[in-house]
Amino acid sequence: MTAEAATAPPQVSRQLIRYTLIGGSGVALDLVVFLLLHNLAGMDEQLANGISTTLGIANNFVLNAKFTFERRDRLFVRFLRFYAVGLTGIAFTDLLFLAFTDGLGIDANLVKAGSLPLVLALQFVLNRKWSFA
N or C, fewer C-beta in 10 Å, the chain? Predict the structure, then answer.
């Protein structure tokens, strides 16, 4: 077994832990902004989701580039890729809003909160393999 193969699983584990912790800060920012825009300002849930998720994506890119994947090269290209991956989260969450909020009448706040772990897992894999490869 090569040294690289022996160290790969611990590196992935460390990256996942850091990504999750950083993701937590982005999720907190995303959720607070969503709740303020949707509940206090009365903004449509899909527009509020787009704005709040964009802020969370920007927060997470900066922190992940520095601390998780430790990549500081080609930042503009990496950000575009990271944002594209983030858009998959917006699209996925919007589909859940359509199905569960609009279709079944489930509260948008619950749908938003329930979507977060699924989006986090999907985006970690995509960002690790594409944005920061």
Answer: N
